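Working notes for the structural subgroup meeting. M.R. asked for a predicted model of this chain before we commit to crystallization trials. I am recording the input and output together here so anyone reviewing the notebook later can reproduce the run.

Input as submitted:
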Amino acid sequence: MQEDQPKVNVYSGRLTWGLTLMAIWLLITILVQANTFLNLGTQPVDLQNAGASTNPGQLILGCLGLIAFIVELVGVILIFADSRRVQGLPRRLAVFGLAFFILYLLTTGAGIGMSITMVFNGTLGSFVIATWITAIASPLGFLAALLLVFGIAPGGIKGALTFALVLSLVSTIGMTLLTSSHLALQTYQTANRTVYLPQINFDRSTGVYPILSGLGILATVLYLGAYITLVLDARSASKSGVSDAVK
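Returned structure, recorded in token form:
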């Protein structure tokens, strides 16, 4: 229908920058995921020991995660702001994308906050709930990234993003099921209070877990490929002054 077509035909520099930043976020995410995958058999599963680790690599990954979050946030803002130039379905999808991104932020914050709280007064069931809340955030972020560009993406890109979202859901749900079903609670006595920390009691380097982890990486790679394609299309369209019609 005509109402679902963009109001303008030219990509803006703001949209191109937004797409580029999202591609950078996805690239950093892949690096973090790949590091996790390669170290499944060597990562400390006792969270007390993990937290006490001074491995410089972990510090670098933490910094990369912060950079990725900032880059993603700016990218989402730019893409959403640019969506005001269009009418119909692309604009509505962008609004939903921003809504899911906000939900993703809230869910991430809730999961982290609940995990910290449970360290001092939690039960095993509370840690399981916190694990699921944190896990849900990842697919919400991917859904937001899909909706933000779904209205302007060609058909092939839409299909790739949708398939990648399904892979992400399968990966997240599968890994969280395995993790939450093998959690045990350990109690540590400090000088002032008792601390409760979960311990993962299974080898994540064997069985189906590496496969599920690999599916998550594949999902991110597909997202990255889709966004790189959109960046190239946007730059090409900006040079020629005409964008592809929304399919």
